[in-house]
């Protein structure tokens, strides 16, 4: 091999290496930007054994079915009017060893929330399993949920409790043997968020019958099921948005099987298909749902004269007119998104916590000349 050919080969190798490094650096920059938007400092460590609770998946599907322009969660009864993020924490407490136990302390491993997030609502979801053999018709069981403000010392002092929520359940032969019940624990999460959850002593559950006697926990709670009690904390990170029309109108339901429309032959400003596959970009190990989504993009020319269907602003009409008179002095108007809608992501953060967040401006709904 001649020296000239070796030099050419070295130059080609250098060029390929630089191109590859540039692509890697560019990819890392995009990923870092996405992680910053998600409120994370580093890429999460992939865990293939992450179990997504049914309550979280139910809420995720509800967001897809709701299909509005809002980023807020459809949860009547909870103050989630501006919440766009929900964090899920499974119970870390041990199952009561005494079959006669009348109280149960739920413990949740809650780390400090991102600085810009504010607690809007919180709930504890528990699977109840009523013992049909011990059930009495028309018997009421009151379930009380307390915030443990200050733990007690055995033999010295009782814990300081604050009642947050209660439910009265009427037991009869027709009562379902297993059901999930939600309890509002927002006051506890609001209190703990002020100290970055440093004084987190858990939540106390107890059951009381009408007669005043305390019902055994094993007769009411399902401790054998894999569905542990869950704490779901709803927060607002400041990026929440609401479309004024979202409260009275709903978009046509998106469908993954919707046939893709081919671009028109004319290169006019229009919305074109763009599917973002998280597997292709290497995010599927920590983004659990969806696997990808239809993002779309805007492309095409804003040519004179601008037709009504091109959704042009008055300024774009005048700019296009001036461009037709003097193309060198005034550029054409640009084809850009004029209406965007949110998308919900279910992922694991850098603390290995399951998070669901709805992000605005993720999908192009309409394009126009501006």
TrEMBL record:
Q: Where in the cell is it found?
A: Secreted
Question: What protein name applies here?
Answer: Protein decapentaplegic
Q: Where is the signal peptide?
A: 1-22
**Family matches, as PANTHER family:** PROTEIN DECAPENTAPLEGIC, TGF-BETA FAMILY
Family statement? Belongs to the TGF-beta family.
Stretches assigned to the TGF-beta family profile domain: 251-370
Recorded GO cellular component terms are: extracellular space
SMART domains in the record = TGFB
GO terms (molecular function) for this protein are: cytokine activity; growth factor activity
Quick check: keyword Disulfide bond in the entry? yes
Q: Which UniProt keywords apply?
A: Disulfide bond, Glycoprotein, Growth factor, Secreted, Signal
């Amino acid at each position: 091999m001649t020296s000239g050919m070796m030099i050419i080969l070295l130059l080609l190798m250098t060029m390929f290496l630089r191109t590859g490094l540039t692509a890697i650096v560019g990819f890392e920059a995009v990923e870092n930007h996405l992680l910053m938007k998600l409120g994370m400092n580093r890429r999460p460590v992939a865990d293939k054994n992450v179990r997504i609770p049914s309550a979280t998946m139910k809420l995720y599907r509800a967001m897809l079915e709701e299909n509005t322009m809002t980023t807020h969660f459809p949860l009547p009864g909870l103050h989630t009017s501006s919440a766009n993020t929900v964090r899920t924490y499974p119970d870390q407490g041990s199952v009561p060893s005494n079959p006669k136990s009348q109280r149960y302390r739920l413990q949740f491993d809650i780390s400090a929330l991102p600085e810009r997030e504010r607690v809007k609502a919180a709930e504890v979801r528990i699977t109840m399993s009523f013992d049909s053999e011990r059930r009495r018709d028309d018997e009421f069981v009151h379930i009380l949920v307390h915030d443990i403000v200050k733990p007690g010392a055995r033999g010295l002092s009782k814990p300081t409790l604050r009642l947050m929520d209660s439910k009265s359940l009427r037991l009869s032969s027709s009562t379902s043997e297993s059901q999930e019940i939600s309890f509002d624990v927002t006051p506890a999460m609001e209190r703990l968020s002020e100290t970055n959850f440093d004084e987190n002593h858990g939540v106390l559950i107890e059951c009381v019958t009408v007669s005043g006697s305390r019902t055994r926990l094993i007769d009411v709670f399902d401790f054998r099921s894999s569905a542990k009690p869950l704490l779901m904390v709803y927060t607002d990170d400041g990026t929440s948005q609401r479309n004024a029309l979202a409260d009275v109108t709903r978009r046509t339901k998106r469908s993954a099987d919707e046939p893709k429309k081919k671009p028109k032959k004319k290169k006019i400003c229009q919305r074109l298909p763009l599917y973002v596959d998280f597997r292709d970009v290497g995010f599927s190990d920590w983004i659990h749902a969806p696997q990808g989504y239809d993002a779309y993009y805007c492309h095409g020319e804003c040519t004179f004269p601008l037709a009504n269907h091109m959704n042009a602003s008055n300024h774009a009409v005048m700019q296009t007119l001036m461009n037709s008179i003097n193309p060198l002095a005034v550029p054409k108007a640009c084809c850009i998104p004029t209406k965007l809608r949110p998308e919900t992501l279910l992922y694991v953060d850098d603390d290995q916590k399951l998070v669901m967040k709805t992000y605005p401006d993720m999908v192009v709904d309409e394009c126009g000349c501006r």
